[in-house]
């Protein structure tokens, strides 16, 4: 029996361990925002990997967005050195999960197993992928202890809110320097037979319209900022949304609807601030003098970021020409350029071979509709040999009754382990 076959059997033998590890990760409610229990989940990963011979570092992202003494941004990086010099393969998973939301029929943090699936917030996105990468690494080290190079596993903060307290911070500190890490696999849930090469770009901005406060019984003495924002939304519907629908990409973005440019109105806040839930009084009668809208513009590799911004300013200037006393401000919140790793990159080729060997079919190459932490590894770390590959169905992310299939995790772990064998195992 060759090493590849032994690896396949070794991972199958660790099925119960994989399920228990995934459940343990789900049961730590690492909600972001605000960023709860990050240290708890890092400690769980730390205890486990130290037992398997990894050297671990727990790193707090001091000063990063969101970091505070109440909600510290903790990360863990674990490294296992091989018996011989060689390259490093790094598995990066984010530890945070989004809000639970409504509509669940299972306990969001129970890790319930039913019909071959593990349910819970983060099961798919992406604690199942984190668990699969840990099992893959442990199995590879057990079967091939004389490997060359190093295996790293990281659990990082805040991917769901931009990753600035996680991978971005680590990249700035040199943890993803190409001299110490050569291959990165991010086990995001893009489906087990897909290799994700990159993602679309994003431009987040806050638009504020201004008015003048006055008594609500005499609105003609004021200037309603919410009505101004309504005009902005109308112009977006009239001109901007139809324009975006005409823009298409050659990137293999999934799902199909994401092959065009998109814009989401993330939030609108106008007028008085909402009171606490225990407030029983009525609002005061005022004309709102401010209205703020946050927009989430996703753009394609064929588009220029300056053009993306100008399209929004064109909307605002069109409204300004048509409305008296229209005033606005725009504040950029975030910009990320599109990225796409070449199919010829070593990590892509290795994972593609492993998918064919484990599943008996060719891997699909896709691009994510939303950004993930590859953006920081690419932009800050200057490491281009990076992909996303992991278990889970993309459409389940952030949904009620989120789950990950146990068989999918096993097969993904086998792919990851065979990729380690290909990149770090004995040659010839």
UniProtKB/TrEMBL annotation:
One of its GO terms (molecular function) is hydrolase activity. The keyword Methyltransferase does not apply. Coiled coil: none annotated. Its cofactor is Co(2+); Zn(2+). Residues 198-321 form the Peptidase M20 dimerisation domain. The keyword Metal-binding applies. It holds the Pfam family M20_dimer. InterPro entries: ArgE/DapE (IPR010182), Bact_exopeptidase_dim_dom (IPR036264), Peptidase_M20 (IPR002933), Peptidase_M20_dimer (IPR011650), Peptidase_M20A (IPR050072). Keywords: Cobalt, Hydrolase, Metal-binding, Zinc. Belongs to the peptidase M20A family. PANTHER family: ACETYLORNITHINE DEACETYLASE (PTHR43808), ARGE_DAPE-RELATED DEACYLASE (PTHR43808:SF32). This is Acetylornithine deacetylase/succinyl-diaminopimelate desuccinylase family protein. It comes from Rhodalgimonas zhirmunskyi.
